[in-house]
Amino acid sequence: MKISLVTIALLLLAPRLLQAQWVQTSIPSTLVVTCFADSGANLYAGTDGGIFFSTNHGGSWTSINVGLSDAHVLALGLSATSLFAGTIGGGVYLSTNNGANWKAINTGLTSFVIDAFAVSGTNTFVSTGSGVFLTPNDGITWKNLFSFPSIARALSIVGNNLVAGTANGVFLSTNDGNTWNAANTGLTDTNILAFAASDTSLLAGTSSGGVYLSTDKGGSWVAISAGLTNAPVRALAASGPNLFAATNTGVFFSTNNGAKWKTFNTGLTNLDVRSLAVSGSYLLAGTTGASGVWRRPLSDVVLFGVQSPAQSQNALACYPNPVSGSTTINLSASDRGPAQVTIVNLLGAEVARPFTGELNAGTHVFNWDARGFPAGSYECIVRVNGCLECVPIMVAR
Hints:
With 397 residues, this protein is mainly beta. Helices cover 6% and strands 48% of the residues.
């Protein structure tokens, strides 16, 4: 009986598939976790009971609320030297020592309900109940830039564009918020709840469960919602081609830039998810009361993204394998379409990308030079037209 390479890959990955699930972390489970901010070294979580930080990507948490008079935190923002916290009625707080101490910085603000931050260099933008404000000096002064028809729940900076998401659609500024224009081309749901930037692209989550993608820095949009429920998308996160959406029916993921979404909820006992973050090699989910923060490895995306032979007519092989120098990747594509060839380690982190582009149907050959990479197990992942193939590769020395 002939066994395909994809079947072999699935068999090799089966023990990891059985273990892959969400794990609850040590943050107090009675809190609603509204937002995250990740600096690489530190991960911060904003809740309705203050701010917590972690130095091990959410494995454990410490409360950091000295000077924070309003503990109901709605938004967090990071600059190169400062951490900002936006609250439900106390305005903006600033920490310049990684959250050890906080002080209010509200001079010039006319509303103290803070919904979102966007930071670019020395400019920090904040959305309030009375419009978007700018500070170029860490909150010493604030300038009111613009009042939208409704509160901007989401702010993002993509390239030189400042983008705001409101219940009345998307607004775009190309001059640091001094002037704005509506940017709703392609949106069928204009009630925007969340943004996530990925390279030069921007994702938007909406109230009726749709996710939209902009590849022109917020100027226009296309729907990428196949497989999503009609639940509101409250938060989004991106890690390479892998996208994540938080809803009140759990977490969804896509391994093909949003072409198809699947549920990602194994082990998650509270499906009312309010916030997401990618920190190191982990995905974090913040939930409502009684469950707190949950964590799972990003490598689980590789496991659950593998498709069975019945779902794909593409064939993939790597030779030599094990490899000490270079290995040749042979792909037989059944159809023409966009394709990507990546190499990931066992944590799911991409370590090489031999190809990205359009492929015709037929046989294609790529090369990965494994010299310089640590010995151990890797996986070659090929996506063609939304289908995914996976082959384990062993690097030997």
